[in-house]
């Protein structure tokens, strides 16, 4: 220890302190931390009060609700790439089929909603949804109404949490007139 002190003194022996500059400002006194308010003493709790009321949940513990990302054809959220690729190639076992041919928009919407909720409850994973390509005798603007509407319906709040992905079906399963839906597993 003494050796260190001697070494230090030799190292700083020729050091000259810098001149003090007058800045015109008074030297600042060290700031005192502000006095914290003292909480009033709590009234003694009665044992019966604790038995009746459960403790309030801490705001830090509450789960934050995530709003699901909008689905787009071929894109997937919370699904591994291998499963998405199998879905696109039609390599997943189809657990259920829903054919919307010949239904009105209202009928098709209701049928799709009921079918998805039922399929999720039954633990089904991959669904083939047949929309058809649209009537060729109708005007181009009216052609394929169900095909255009299904993606919107899949993004509705009542259905979206259950659907992980969708993509156009392979030709053997209906091609442009059908979709594969990948449903979330029930936990």
Automatic annotation (TrEMBL):
GO molecular function: endonuclease activity
Comp. bias regions, Pro residues: 31-44
Keywords, alphabetical: Endonuclease, Hydrolase, Nuclease
Classification via InterPro entries: Smr_dom, Smr_dom_sf
Listed SUPFAM superfamilies: SMR domain-like (SSF160443)
Region (Disordered): 19-64
Domain of life: Bacteria
SMART domains reported in the protein's UniProt record: SMR
Smr domain: residues covered: 98-184
One Pfam family named in its UniProt record: Smr
Name this protein carries in UniProt: DNA-nicking Smr family endonuclease
């Amino acid at each position: 220890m003494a050796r260190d002190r001697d070494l230090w003194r030799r190292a700083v022996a020729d050091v000259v302190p810098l001149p003090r500059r007058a800045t015109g400002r008074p030297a600042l006194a060290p700031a005192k931390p502000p006095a914290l308010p003292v909480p009033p003493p709590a009234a003694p709790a009665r044992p019966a009060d604790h038995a009746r009321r459960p403790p309030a949940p801490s705001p830090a513990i509450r789960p934050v609700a995530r709003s699901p990302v909008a689905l787009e054809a071929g894109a997937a959220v919370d699904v591994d790439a291998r499963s998405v690729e199998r879905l696109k190639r039609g390599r997943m076992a189809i657990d259920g089929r829903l054919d919307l041919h010949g239904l009105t928009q209202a009928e098709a919407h209701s049928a799709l909603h009921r079918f998805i909720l039922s399929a999720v409850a039954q633990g089904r994973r991959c669904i083939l949804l047949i929309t058809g390509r649209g009537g060729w005798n109708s005007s181009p603007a009216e052609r394929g109404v169900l095909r255009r509407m299904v993606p919107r319906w899949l993004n509705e709040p009542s259905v979206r949490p259950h659907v992980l992905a969708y993509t156009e079906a392979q030709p053997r399963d209906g091609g442009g007139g059908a979709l594969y839906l990948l449903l979330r597993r029930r936990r």
